[in-house]
């Protein structure tokens, strides 16, 4: 009861924190709802060949098994990027109205407008949104097809956004109630506004996922990229189709996970087509989708517990944790069924104890029962003697016919002269003088005894 009350208080506190953040994260520069400026150049895609499919990520990530447990319903994933074209058939109904940030020459650095998610000039954000939440189909599917995408469009491009603009976009996503924020961007500079905005998001119990970047600094272990390297952020590297680290993927001890990032077919804006994208941006989108699955199945888990499930259940690359792939390749089904521990209160670290049973989403592993002998020593001895006696009876029954035959032969070995068994031999006769001893030739009473009454 005490633990339940403690969890209830923790959930209430988390909700209060989120509400406070939503109330206090005032986004400056709010402008009335308006149509977005038309694109100077529009990224488009092409129709897939007839019969294309199945989508390779479905099998690589074990999504059919994961979807039996969760599809991401009830979870909002914020995509802070170049925008999302929600008119694509694979994203229809999956994307909510979002925000757009335009850089301006003022102290505020930007102007925010609320726009319908219909525009993505570069196509990067639409690709990320598709990997997160596109409908299930033979040719394409997002990792969490039941999740909702909240787009935050950076009009000048996410890579050119000022620190203040990016920080405001992160605050915007938190205020919109996002449970997961996807940041498919990497910056070599630790900007204080961005750092503080990420810290606010984590304090509001949001899972923050960021790309490790594609500068190929794997030979410079420890080179930091932000926001991936901030504490509490899931930093995602990329692996190829063979499951090995991509040369372009950045490395460092701050890398937490990896996902697939080689030549992926993704949703394209401006119609119903598709294009090819690669890199850690696409890998981060897969991890964001996996986080949405876990949050949907275990809504009582904190953001830190969701992150721990994702890393603890990952498939290691090259034998264990390393700077290039972190804990390994994300495994959505493994994260949904993970039985591992954590350092929860009262936990023994092995899934045993009251603390393990009390952790949300944790299925305690029962202790293996001690093997007891089936019989006590006395019972085993009695059973052994019973077996000996039973064996003696069986042998006696089997030997009875042989004994009878031996008796008929007069206890002589072998058959008779004519091949038949010899008849029983006649009993030996007594000597003539003693023949009366065996009852034969016994003298008559008168002859045997003298008549003592006869007179001479």
Provide structural commentary:
With 456 residues, the protein is α/β, with parallel strands linked by helices. The protein folds into 2 domains: 18-358, Rossmann fold (3-Layer(aba) Sandwich), CATH 3.40.50; 378-430, no CATH class. Helices cover 32% and strands 11% of the residues. It has helices at residues 2-24, 56-60, 63-67, 124-133, 163-175, 192-203, 280-297, 303-312, 332-337, 353-358, 377-408, 445-448, and strands at residues 76-81, 98-103, 110-115, 148-154, 180-183, 207-211, 234-239, 257-260, 264-267, 274-277. A hairpin with a 6-residue loop joins strand 9 and strand 10 (274-277). Helix 4 runs parallel beside helix 7 (280-297). Mean pLDDT is 80; it is low at 1-34, 342-370 and 452-456.
Keywords:
456 residues; alpha/beta; Rossmann fold; 2 domains; two-stranded antiparallel ribbon; 12 helices; 10 strands; elongated; disordered C terminus; Peptidase S8/S53 domain-containing protein; transmembrane helix; serine-type endopeptidase activity
């Amino acid at each position: 009861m005490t633990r339940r009350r403690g969890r209830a208080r923790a959930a209430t506190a988390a909700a209060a924190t989120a509400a406070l953040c939503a109330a206090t994260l005032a986004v400056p520069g709010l402008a009335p709802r308006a149509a977005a400026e038309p694109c100077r150049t529009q990224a488009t895609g092409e129709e897939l060949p007839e019969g294309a499919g199945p989508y390779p990520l479905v099998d690589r990530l074990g999504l059919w098994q994961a979807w039996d447990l969760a599809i991401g319903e009830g979870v909002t994933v914020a995509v802070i990027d170049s925008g999302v074209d929600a008119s694509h058939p694979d994203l229809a109904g999956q994307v909510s109205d979002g925000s757009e940030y335009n850089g301006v020459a003022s102290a505020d650095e930007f102007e925010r407008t609320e726009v319908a998610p219909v525009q993505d000039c570069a196509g990067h954000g639409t690709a990320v949104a598709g990997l997160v939440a596109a409908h299930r189909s033979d040719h394409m599917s997002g990792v969490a097809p039941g999740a909702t995408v909240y787009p935050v469009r950076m009009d000048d491009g996410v890579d050119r956004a000022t620190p203040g603009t990016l920080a405001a976009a992160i605050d915007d996503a938190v205020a919109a109630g996002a449970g997961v924020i996807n940041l498919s961007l990497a910056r070599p500079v630790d900007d204080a506004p961005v750092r503080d905005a990420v810290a606010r998001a984590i304090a509001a119990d949001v899972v923050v996922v960021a790309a490790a970047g594609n500068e190929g600094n794997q030979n410079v272990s420890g080179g930091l990229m932000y926001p991936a390297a901030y504490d509490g952020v899931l930093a995602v590297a990329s692996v190829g189709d063979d499951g090995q680290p991509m040369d372009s993927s950045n490395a460092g001890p701050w890398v937490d996970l990896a996902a697939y990032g080689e030549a992926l077919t993704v949703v394209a804006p401006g119609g119903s087509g598709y294009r090819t994208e690669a890199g850690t941006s696409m890998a981060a989108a897969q991890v964001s989708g996996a986080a949405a699955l876990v949050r949907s199945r275990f809504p009582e888990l904190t953001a830190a517990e969701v992150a721990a499930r994702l890393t603890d259940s990952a498939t290691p690359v090259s034998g264990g944790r390393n700077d290039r792939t972190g804990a390994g390749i994300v495994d959505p089904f493994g994260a949904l069924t993970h039985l591992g521990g954590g350092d929860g209160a009262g936990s023994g670290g092995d899934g045993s104890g009251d603390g393990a049973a009390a952790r949300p989403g944790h299925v305690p592993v029962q202790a293996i029962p001690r093997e007891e002998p089936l019989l006590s020593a006395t019972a085993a001895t009695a059973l052994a003697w019973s077996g000996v006696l039973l064996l003696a009876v069986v042998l006696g029954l089997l030997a009875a016919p042989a004994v009878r035959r031996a008796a008929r032969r007069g206890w002589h070995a072998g058959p008779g002269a004519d091949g038949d068994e010899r008849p029983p031999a006649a009993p030996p006769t007594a000597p003539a003088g003693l023949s009366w001893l065996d009852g034969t030739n016994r003298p008559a009473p008168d002859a045997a005894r003298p008549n003592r009454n006869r007179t001479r």
